[in-house]
Design brief:
341 residues; Helicase, Ruva Protein, domain 3; Rossmann fold; two-stranded antiparallel ribbon; alpha/beta; single chain
Length: 341
Amino acid sequence: MTTQTLAQSDVDACRELVARMRGELAKLFVGQEALVEGVIIAIVANGHVLVESLPGLGKTLLVKAVAKILGLKNNRIQFTPDLMPSDITGSHVFDLAERRFVFHQGPVFTQFLLADELNRAPAKTHAALLEVMQERQVTLDGRHHTLEAPFLVMATQNPVENEGTYNLPEAQLDRFLFKLVIAYPTAPEEERILGLFLAGSSPEAILRDQVVAAADTTRVVELQRLASLVTVDQAVVSYISALVRRTRGHPGLHLGASPRAGIAILAASRAAALCRGRTYVVPDDVTDVAIPAMRHRVMLSPEAEIEGRNSDGILQEVLKAVEVPRGISPQGAARSASANG
């Protein structure tokens, strides 16, 4: 079996494409560099993304902008308490002319799906997305309907303290490669936002008139293929395993990260290395993606909740407690198996 290697020319082309994607998002978003970087890494890693923020911070706008920049077919589902599973996947409808039941595809049959305010729908509706997100297919009446590649879900949710929201089931959360959080802008950033508004530039107008597609289906699929060829040293693999295992039994956590969290970190680390112009993963790639990949996969202990702690703070402690491997080089990196979250 021939082992494929990643050419530096391919890496340079990927880095240039990612830079164009960043540039298009920068037309619309003030600050939020970590958020934009997280979204791009997740796309390259072929992973789904959950974006959380309070209302008014631009999470829906972000997802709509990413859909346009990727140049993929896209649909939007607005989640509400009365949304039914068939409203997502589709259903069989009796065709009077043909005198038989015909399958009508739901909005999930697309390449880029915006699941807006996901946690406003009950658990039975979320269940319709489990197979779709994990296996990229829909099963109805014993028949499998495969989705067109690439298939990416970007979901938004409001914090659970908001009225009318539900906690997402653990199985649903585990399908997301990353959970990204949009914070309030800094004072200079907020002043710049107000300045743009005074100048007559609305976000919707910028998205419509200035943001253009930087990629297409072929380019996105190629990015994801090349990310799977990024080499990973065994020391980095051991480092990822140590981080994940350290969350289990931590006094501040009732539930530690699962092996799928390690796979998510590995896939995202490869994507991060490719986006940064390298053919191999370094520990900094791992530490940059570890918290977004694990924050939704761990559960605080009751004592930690009473103390007002959060998962990000505890995961920071885990990162500090695990020794970082040194001396990683392209010569020492050994390709591991392709890992997709």
